[in-house]
Request: fold
Amino acid sequence: MPTAIAVTGPDLVLPPPDRHTPSAAVLQSAVRDPRTYSLDQALTEMDTLIEHHGYVVVLCPASAPAAVTHRLHAVRSVLESDRIAVVRSDLPPLGLAVLALQLRQLSICDFSPGVLASAARLLSHYIYAGALLGSVAKLDRVPVSLQSHAKSWLPGARFAVLATPRPELVKLSEGGGATPQGPGFATRMLYAPGQLAPGWVTETLAPAWHCQGVTEARPAAESARWWATGKLVEFAAAIPDISVLYQLVSSVRRDDCHWCGLELIGDRCAFCAAPLPPAADHPAPRRALAPSGATALPRGVT
Reply:
């Protein structure tokens, strides 16, 4: 069985693109109220996943309530298991759902659990996640100028906000105007409409970013809280081709974790959190291959 990809809410599970892609496990210990879903039930849930899959990679939004992260780490501690990786992400809800889908696709490939878990950090750099917003007055996850705050109170104001891989905010004019800087490689766009019409996203942004296709997704219950307004259309453009994702992850040098022994890519083990020890004779890491059509990698990706 492939490594299990687990998520902290049903909104993070997108439909699979084919019959080979496994689904994600929705952790009831993260969804249910801790007062009604006991620690014993949470332990049984996780232990069952480990028994069936060997290893579990849990994607948890950085914005999740403290009770959720405390329960996840409590489960890992009580089970005394080095087979559970809790990967926290700053991606907005739709972007995190896309990342979960990509890891689900890669879980059926020949990557070891350690490489698969640490690939989440790498792949996040290639997900262009943002939203069309009717107000940025309360937005605190992306830098917002005082001028943009003031313009939020004008009737009919709209803003295109990119959260990752680099924050950007564009005030939209009546004629459409500029768009946030998009990816330099082939992507497919997903969008989830809230209380705004999705026309600008599907008819202006997607063509400007040269997206290969546009698909509507179910709005996430968390989106309005994450973006601080219900007047939104969330979007995420990402690499849809599993062969390109495979090449991207395969091109990065692998190391063995000095603490738990699992393979990893990057500078930290996703399972035990041990950093890669510095060494004077450690060769410089190979840079990840840029996806087809890209001219350069995002800053900080190796």
Notes: Residues 280-287, 293-302 have pLDDT under 50 and may be disordered. The domain at 4-122 is CATH 3.40.50 (Rossmann fold).
